[in-house]
Design goal:
11 strands; 256 residues; 4-stranded antiparallel beta sheet; Ribosomal Protein S8, Chain: A, domain 1
Amino acid sequence: MLALALFAPRAGAQTQPAVSKAAETKPCTEAKISGETKSAPESYQIFYLANVTQQNDLTDISTALRNMLPQARLYAMPTQNAITMHGTAEDIQLAKKMIAELDLPKKIYRLTYTITETDGGKRTGTQNFALIAVTDQMVLLKQGSRVPVFVGTNDAKSSKQVAEPAGAQMQYQDVRLTITATAEGSPEGLRLRSKIEQSSLAEEKSGVGAQDPEIRQTVLEGFSTLALGKPLVLGSLDLPGGTRKREIEVVAELVK
């Protein structure tokens, strides 16, 4: 009876089964196993961009993909207009969706510039110049001629300038019309950057020499917002030496 009394539990004590320690550690072991992250399988994909026309377009799309897919590895290939990607299937699907929304065909516009000259309110001449412009790309038009200008002579003994001295040194000055245009899309309409530069020979001479012409130059540059099909006057100016006036307007039409 005394031996049995020594092994009897005390009043109020809680007994634990022998397997309680194992039961406490088992869930921890399972949590450790379940907590291990296994990397998802990755694959390789090349995306060829059909509507990229300049390197800035490729750079913008590549940057957008890198920002949205930081775990994927992306490389732009400018010579192929392509982007190589190594990532999970989920990343590749998201990249396909983004490229489909970003790699869109660029709009093409026909820009018609009209230069009108008047004298005393009466039209004396009109010039029309049509350019085909792709969105976000510069288009350039030049028309004119080159005028020889006498700048000196190789004859050191000659102190007088004649019409065509022996050993004359000539330079050629461009006398032309230059139109530079860049069309940009905007929510308000077509945003157009234009630069119109026109040079011409004046009737009077420069006064430096009998053979030296006087060249006049007019430059108009700035941004404007156009509504398709509606002409917009970019600027006008009074020409010196009379009542002549020159006006420049532009109209834009969507080609496709």
